[in-house]
Amino acid sequence: MAGRLEGKVAVVTGAAQGIGLAIATRYAAEGATVVLSDLDADRAQAAAAAIGPGATAVGCDVTDEGQVASLIAGVVEGHGGLDVAVANAGVAVVAPAVGQSLADWRKVIAVNLDGVFLTLTHAAGAMAASGGGSLVTIASVTAQAGSPLIASYAAAKAGAVNLTKTIAVEMRDHGVRANAICPGFIDTELVKPHKQTFADALGLQAMGIPDFDAFIAMKQGRYGTEEEVAALATFLASDRSGFCTAGEYNLDGGLRASLL
Amino acid sequence: MSDLELEGRRAHVTGAASGIGWAIAQRLAAGGARVAISDIDEAGAIARAAELGSGHLGVRANVRSMDEVTAALAATVDAFGGLDLLVNNAGIEIGVPVVETDEADFMRLMDINVTGVFRCTKAAAGALAEAAAAGSDAAIVNIASVAGVGGVPLLGAYCASKAAVIRFSEVCAIELREAGVRVNAVCPAFIDTPMVQRLAPAVAAMTGMEFGDVVAVKQGRYGTLEEVAEVVAFLGSSEAGWTTGSHYVLDGGLSGGLL
User: Fold this and answer.
1) Residue B25 is assigned to a structural domain of this protein
2) Cα-flanking dihedrals φ and ψ of residue A60, to 5°?
């Protein structure tokens, strides 16, 4: 079976680990040429080497316009064009909004919103120049509801979803599609260290829920996997989703569907 | 085109003798699924199943009848030995202003578009849960519409029905999660179907724009039946194994833009 992304050139930001790495790995398996970008260039290099031929790595701080511009230009120059860009790089600060420092707020907004702005706009320009492409933003269901302890993260994700839709509408006539993926909780390095903090803040003990994992099982069945996000990112990158643009696609085991 | 994740899946698609339902049936069959085509047009359903080749089923089902729906689902389970995927596609539209809509017509539309989904879901849930217990990724995909996401003039009843389908899908997703059955909705915008062409003159009269221009400005172009079928195939496969309670819009940006 031919891969779903055969012949496509893709760039994935924050691809040295977690969801970004899973997406880069799946894209390569589907026949795409993949450029893994990450703040940690060495780790991205190692990840690309592990994926094998068809994958290369570039160090890039997505908050720096010069670096993003040169990342995109380098991909276009090195591979003859750009078909798919995944704005995935993200960070989180876990603390209540009230009392949080402006510096912490700005750090998260810089990566999760400014970084998405730079990635999407530079990639869209390159795609428009060569007939079109698909932009995929890794957002979060936290974009859609109040999210205790991760105010800056959720606000940035909400901004990123809206930005994705605006770019989709602006760039439709240039053949550029843009969609956002909103996963629920995945057991990534972003979540793992903070489970007890969430459990305490949500008062799980008082509700008779032993820990955050049990709470997740109640709300979304189980943790999602990075590979499941990669499957959706593959669909949205492929020509099979040709009429999907300005969309916001949840995968969350039913978390958002329930009010309770 | 064969997809590992659709190979051998046992599917039932309602209203599948024509239009989007037929495109979905073809897509699932092309991916290696066995497909039961149900339709109020029994001869059409049987002919379409034959067109797909051997191993498929054509069966009559008027989704307004609990008895007919129950029988059609039972026939599917009998023929295939179980059911992994139900696609609730059967539906109708009325394209007239709300104040001119006949009450009986409104109720008939609701009975088909909303209660029909309820009837099929109720009739299929047991078999889907059994499949899930045996290790299958059991799923329901409801064909809603972008008209369930935002208002479209002249489609009062249709919009209300599709919004209801989206919300109903959410509740089913939560209630059936522990049984291992995923439930999602798909929301296409204007596809170049006879249903849409029937609406075109009235929409043109109301907006003062040619309908084709409305489509070009708001969603770039018409979507295709095949594009809807691709999203259904994705949500109906294990590729979307953690997606439940969601509605996936494909609308060329129609609902994603403000203006």
Assistant:
1) yes
2) -160, 130
Instruction: Calculate the alpha carbon distances from A38 to A44, A80, A243 in Å.
Output: 6, 21, 30
Element (H, E) at A183: strand A176-183
Helix H or strand E segment including A36 = strand A33-38
Give the residue from chain B lying closest to A162, CA to CA.
Answer: B256
Q: Distances in Å between the alpha carbon of B18 and those of B36, B43, B89, B193, B200?
A: 14, 12, 11, 10, 20
What integer best gives the mean pLDDT of chain A?
97
Residue B217, domain extent: 192-222
Task: Tell me the per-residue pLDDT of A107-147, one tens digit each, with 9 for 90 and over.
Answer: 999 999 999 999 999 999 999 999 999 999 999 999 999 99
CB distance B245 to A252 below 8 Å: yes
pLDDT of residue A217: 95
Same domain, B143 and B218: no
Strand, coil or helix: B117 = helix
Average pLDDT per 10 consecutive residues for chain B, totaling 259 residues: 80 97 98 98 98 97 98 98 98 94 98 98 98 98 97 94 98 98 97 87 87 92 97 97 98 93
Give tens-digit pLDDT for A148-165.
Answer: 999 999 999 999 999 999
One-letter amino acid for residue B162 of the chain: K
Q: What is the pLDDT of residues A21-55, one digit of tens each?
A: 999 999 999 999 999 999 999 999 999 999 999 99
Q: What letter represents residue A164's amino acid?
A: T
Joined tokens for residue A70: 């040169």
Going by C-alpha positions, the residue among B122, B138, B31, B144 that lies closest to residue B82 is: B138
Q: Is residue B190 within 8 angstroms of chain A, CB to CB?
A: no
Please tell me the distance in Å from B184's CA to the nearest CA on chain A.
9
- pLDDT, tens digit (0-9, with 9 covering 90-100), for A88-109: 999 999 999 999 999 999 999 9
- Chain B positions in Cβ-Cβ contact with residue A124 (cut-off 8 Å): none
Residue B258 lies in a domain: no
Q: Which residues of B touch A221 (CB under 8 A)?
A: 177-178, 242, 244
How many Cα neighbours within 13 Å face the side chain of B40?
10
- How is A116-139 classified by DSSP, letter by letter? HHHHHHHHHHHHHHTT-EEEEEE-
Residue B197 Cα, gap to closest chain A Cα (Å): 19
Contact A232 B252 (CB under 8 A): no
Helix, strand or coil, per DSSP, at residue A8:
coil
Q: Are B73 and B66 in contact (CB under 8 A)?
A: no
ipTM: 0.92
Q: What is the CATH number of domain A9-186+225-251?
A: 3.40.50.720
What is the rounded CA–CA span in Å between residue B158 and residue B183? 21
- Hey, what are A79's tokens? 């591979």
Give me the residue from A172, A240, A247 closest to B249, CB to CB. Answer: A247
pTM of the model: 0.95
Name the one residue in this structure whose structure tokens are 């039972």. Answer: B74
CATH number of the domain enclosing B129: 3.40.50.720
